[in-house]
UniProtKB/TrEMBL annotation:
Signal peptide: none annotated. GO terms for biological process: bacillithiol biosynthetic process. SUPFAM superfamilies: UDP-Glycosyltransferase/glycogen phosphorylase. Residues 190-347 form the Glycosyl transferase family domain. InterPro entries: Glyco_trans_1 (IPR001296), Glyco_trans_4-like_N (IPR028098), Glycosyltransferase_grp1 (IPR050194), Thiol_BshA (IPR023881). GO terms for molecular function: glycosyltransferase activity. Residues 11-174 form the Glycosyltransferase subfamily 4-like N-terminal domain. Pfam families: Glyco_transf_4, Glycos_transf_1. This is N-acetyl-alpha-D-glucosaminyl L-malate synthase BshA.
Length: 380
């Protein structure tokens, strides 16, 4: 198949999923054309069967707002025609589903549109009255719509009253990249006295409740010696730094900024902390599990679908920092339990969220929209 993929190319779960899916589809012999505003950050090097088409927005002085959505639609249509694309698979509804709809109008009905909902395109933007109707329109005019968790499907129905089918396709992990690494030397640099190591990875937006991460760690520190690695950057970072100082934790909270090799960074730590207020899936939780790291998380959105409470980590209500700290301490203080959780985390990541299985599910949807045959989506 000839597939156009559009996503946000900068750091973010939806861009990662779109790019990794594109690479897997290309490995399976499909031709994949990325149509994005910049090179997706996980692409960078040469891959067979993959092409990149940049969306270059005209910044004519009359425009107060450069018309990205229209330029994207136009580029999608252009690439679809010249490369004879079968379909456009857009990740994140706003504005990609609408741009794809416009492109389809320009190219013809044979060009199919598959939209994948990733989270804040519904759980934040779906509540915005300036966008709500447009998002619903984009979803209802796609040839197929998928969402990354059952929770996100339920929320989409609730927030937008969408009637058309939305299929569940979980995010996936490629075990050739995500597996436990030996990072003992580096771990010793951060935790020279055998301290337990906790880690948080995010874009430090308010929905991640990064202040809760520091508060959880503060409670943990009352019970055992530990270090906290904070990975990523974003608007809440200065707030979190101040909080760590206020709580006298500056020596033990280590800010490492953005990191590319997440599997290696995760392998330094014992447990991932993810107390988000919203999380449609929580890709980083899956990445941690694949590296054998149990996750202490909130019960936001799709997190309970990814992390099996009491098996691959612990789930506590959003904001229950003491409960999360207590579970974290229990887990790292019991070597047998930790070992079991770590093993179960890897098994669950590789089995339920296997990259091969999920790629086949997307392929089945592509085939169905192209042929009209109702081949059922391979079971999860
Ligand atoms: O929230 C983020 O960190 C970024 C956001 C995105 O659009 O990339 O992530 C969303 O999509 C990811 C991939 O499907 C999910 O793993 C995240 O849970 C989801 N974020 C939210 O729902 C807040």
């Amino acid at each position: 198949m000839k597939i156009g993929i559009t996503c946000y190319p900068s750091v973010g779960g939806s861009g990662v999923v779109a790019t990794e899916l594109g690479k897997l589809l290309a490995e399976r012999g499909h031709t994949v054309h990325f149509i994005t505003s910049g090179m997706p950050f996980r692409l960078g090097k040469y891959y067979r069967n993959i092409y990149f088409h940049e969306v270059d927005v005209n910044s004519y002085s009359v425009f107060q707002y450069p018309p990205y959505d229209l330029t994207l639609a136009s580029r999608m249509a252009q690439v679809a025609k010249t490369e004879k694309l079968d379909l456009l698979h857009v990740h994140y509804a706003v504005p990609h589903a609408i741009s794809a709809y416009l492109a389809k109008q320009m190219v013809g009905d044979h060009l199919k549109v598959v939209t994948t909902l990733h989270g804040t395109d519904i759980t934040v933007l779906g509540y915005d009255h300036t966008l709500k109707d447009m998002i619903r329109f984009g979803i209802e005019h796609s040839d197929a719509v998928t969402a990354v968790s059952q929770s996100l499907i339920n929320q989409t129905r609730e927030v937008l009253q969408v009637k058309t089918p939305i299929e569940l396709i979980y995010n996936f992990i490629d075990k050739r990249e995500y597996y436990p690494r030996d990072m003992c030397d580096i771990r010793e640099e951060y935790a020279p006295n055998g301290e337990k190591v906790f880690i948080h990875i995010s874009n430090f937006r308010a929905v991640k409740r990064t202040d809760d991460v520091v508060r959880i760690f503060h409670h943990i520190k009352k019970r055992l010696t530990a270090k906290l690695l904070m990975i990523g950057e974003g608007p809440e970072l200065p707030v979190v730094r101040d909080l760590a100082s206020e709580l006298n934790l500056r020596e033990d909270v280590i800010f490492l900024g953005k990191q590319e090799d997440i599997a290696c960074v995760l392998s330094i730590a014992d447990v991932l902390l993810l107390p988000s207020a919203q999380e449609s899936f929580g890709l980083v939780a899956l990445e941690a599990m694949a590296c054998g790291k149990p996750v202490i998380a909130s019960n936001a959105g799709g997190l309970p679908e990814v992390i099996k409470d009491g098996e691959t980590g612990f789930i506590r209500p959003i904001g229950d920092v003491e409960g999360m700290a207590q579970k974290a301490v229990e887990l790292v203080s019991d070597p047998a339990m930790y070992e079991r959780f770590s093993r179960q985390a890897i098994e669950r990541a590789y089995h339920t969220f296997c990259h091969k299985k999920i790629t086949r599910q997307y392929e089945a949807i592509y085939r169905r929209v192209l042929t009209g045959e109702t081949e059922p989506c391979p079971k999860l």
